[in-house]
Amino acid sequence: MTSTAKQPKPRGRRQLNKHIHLAAHFPGVNNTTVWTDPRSRSQIDFASFEHLARTAERGLFDFFFLAEGLRLREHKGRVHDLDVVGRPESLTVLNALAAVTERLGLAATVNATFNEPYETARRFATLDHLSGGRAAWNVVTSSDAFTGENFRRGGYLDRADRYTRAAEFVATARELWDSWTPEGQPRPFAHTGQHFDIEGEFTLPRSPQGHPVVIQAGDSPEGREFAASAADVIFTRHGTPEAGRAFYADVKGRLAKYGRTAGDLKIMPGVTVVLGDTAAEAQERAAGIRRQQVSPQNALLTLEQIWGVDLSSYDPDGPLPDIDPVVDSGLSQGRTKRGDPRAVAEQWRALSRAKGLSIRQTVIETTTRQSFIGTPQAVAAELDEFVQSDAADGFILVPHLTPSGLDEFVDQVVPLLQERGAYRTEYTGTTLRSHLGLKEPVPPAREEGLTA
Amino acid sequence: MTASTGRGLLHLAAAVDQPDTYEADPYLTLTRLAERGALDFVTLGDSFGRPGPDALAVLSRVAPATARIGLVPTVTTTHTEPFHVQAAVATLDWVSRGRAGWRPEVSATEEEARLFGRRAAAPAAELWGEAGEVADVATRLWDSWEDDAEIRDVATGRFIDREKLHYVDFQGATFSVRGPSIVPRPPQGHPVTVVDTTQQHAYDVAARHADVALVNAAGPAQAAAVRAGLRRRAAEYGRDPDALRVLAALRIDLGGGEHAAVPGHGGGGPLPSDLGPLYRGGPVDLADLVTAWHRAGAVDGFHLTPVVPRRDLERLVNGTVPLLQHRGLFRTFYPGSTFREHLGLARPANQYAALAGDLS
């Protein structure tokens, strides 16, 4: 109970505290997923998705989250083979999960570059109908010609156009979701904009949530502005409490000019948690997981992604290369870049020199530090503090094991959050909007067909 | 399993389409009913041009709540990226543990084209040509992972053996795909492709790519001729005709009594209607019709579309199916677990694995 004592704002009774929102990220194609552990199971079998989704629902989570992949990642011109590879298509998995869960929100990442608004809006509206109001859409964009080789559209979208397309895409989807009359009659729509020029009738009535929940992932200024204007949830990077509060204040501060209030956009960083019976045991387990996450082969590969050249002759247990990185070498494809490679290389070399770290140790140190490490009590207190101090509204938990990676958290941390009065003890509504405390979108009262 | 005369196993399928239905339960109810009758599969239609939910999504929602029955959504290929089409169908196979099929369909209207605003409407014949290419690239992408590509080799740190992943480098008339798929090879190898040849211009796609072809016929003699023609065309494409199941499409109106409203109708042929051949009568005479056509070797089975969805499917499952089972013509339980097993179709070999074998 001391964790909120230093709150600057005056607070009422404990139960008036913010409730933490929680989501479960399925650990699939991700370099933090440990597949070498004997407990690791298939990232494809439906049983794995069912296990994690049921665990999340048992823990009264707001939603279950699936990432997207549209092209297998490559390294040195070949399919990357050191991390988990392959995944099923997200919306199809979520429709199936709707059959084995009752309240849990179901979020899919769907790219606004390689899809069209009409079909995407239709697929999410269908999920919302079939799940009784639990659908969420994580909107991402890509400008990547590499991924484009799998599609008619190709990859020609300029970087600058990504957010304008995404914004218009979401706005168009909402026009479609709004297009039927409240009485359930189809009504024609027409949209003309920079990216889309479409008209006709939507094939579904207004769905249980009105609009499926929209999630935006990304921390760039354009991403923040897009989220402030159009998203219900922002999936952000986790950092220090100070950085979290600054981000939170910045993004929430952008809402007013769109006629929105602070409660209309939930900020949920992606986080990792390691538990132990004692603080020391938790630290030891965390270090063990980090070693599992960075095999010697993966350490060299991580370095090659930054240096942009073949480093296979280097010893992962030896020092970092003295040579400078080659910028934009194209050695690695289909991954998020880590920023200016020369600056990153310099930082890493400095760290390695200062602490006497090998290549593998440096990669472990810089890429895999878990967000919350400690006893269940300590982690519950820290999570609560993070939210009560307005560094976040909740968390998207990214476990390292498929599919059992959240079992401990749900069994040990969730009850403590509930005891603290910081977390729901039951689902009070049936829709994801109700879990997140988001308003129902008001259907437009227009008599005639929609025009852009 | 199926003799060339067609007098092998009888296969039965039913449509679970219901107008103005957007929630899951009514679809689940009908699919479970069909599964109680041990039917091979259910179909669900789809079109961007009329109200209705995404059919593949509906059958994904139904999959975990059913155990054995095949699930065949219509998937349109005109406005959806081929890469997305194949990934969704493969995923339906994963979530249903080997029970997925798909029924390709085209979107030929100007109204549908305007919903996307990307391409002008094109003639159906042209779009069926493209649908054939989508079916082709789909099987390539399903094969782009060999079954044993995932190795999880801790010693070398390798999750997959990338020698067992393949670029497809498909160049079609209107699209190209590099590959490999993002989805590992589905449980059935290739989910079952069902082609409705009652759609004009779909005939060639059926002969080339279908595992199951749906045909219109007014009587057993005509059905036998259509079936023979399709098998011949399949053979011309280098396929084994015994790997093609030909089902007669029949709308059924079982609202009357036990017997056909039209005397002799049950043992004879169905009546023509705007939407294809229609049987109107009782479940007993429907069993006689199915028996007569099957004994004549006219077709491998029937795809039945209830005119009144719940009523007619109930009468089919509770009336017609037990008679066919009693006559030893139809299964009383599912001996296999995958849709291909119900159809008596082998799990296809991987075209890329075979190629690697030839080179070695």
UniProtKB/TrEMBL annotation, chain A:
Pfam families: Bac_luciferase. Residues 41-389 form the Luciferase-like domain. Its EC number is 1.14.-.-. One of its GO terms (molecular function) is monooxygenase activity. The keyword Membrane does not apply. FMN binds at residues 109, 163, 220. Keywords: Flavoprotein, FMN, Monooxygenase, Oxidoreductase. CDD domains: Nitrilotriacetate_monoxgenase. InterPro entries: Diverse_substr_monoxygenases (IPR051260), Luciferase-like_dom (IPR011251), Luciferase-like_sf (IPR036661), NTA_MOA (IPR016215). Gene3D superfamilies: Luciferase-like domain. Belongs to the NtaA/SnaA/DszA monooxygenase family. PANTHER family: ALKANESULFONATE MONOOXYGENASE-RELATED, C2H2 FINGER DOMAIN TRANSCRIPTION FACTOR (EUROFUNG)-RELATED. This is NtaA/DmoA family FMN-dependent monooxygenase.
Automatic annotation (TrEMBL), chain B:
The keyword Transmembrane helix does not apply. FMN binds at residue 74. The keyword Zinc-finger does not apply. Keywords: Flavoprotein, FMN, Monooxygenase, Oxidoreductase. Coiled coil: none annotated. Transmembrane segments: none annotated. InterPro entries: Diverse_substr_monoxygenases (IPR051260), Luciferase-like_dom (IPR011251), Luciferase-like_sf (IPR036661), NTA_MOA (IPR016215). Residues 23-251 form the Luciferase-like domain. SUPFAM superfamilies: Bacterial luciferase-like. GO terms for molecular function: monooxygenase activity; oxidoreductase activity, acting on paired donors, with incorporation or reduction of molecular oxygen. Belongs to the NtaA/SnaA/DszA monooxygenase family. PANTHER family: ALKANESULFONATE MONOOXYGENASE-RELATED (PTHR30011), C2H2 FINGER DOMAIN TRANSCRIPTION FACTOR (EUROFUNG)-RELATED (PTHR30011:SF16). This is LLM class flavin-dependent oxidoreductase. It comes from Streptomyces sp. NBC_00119.
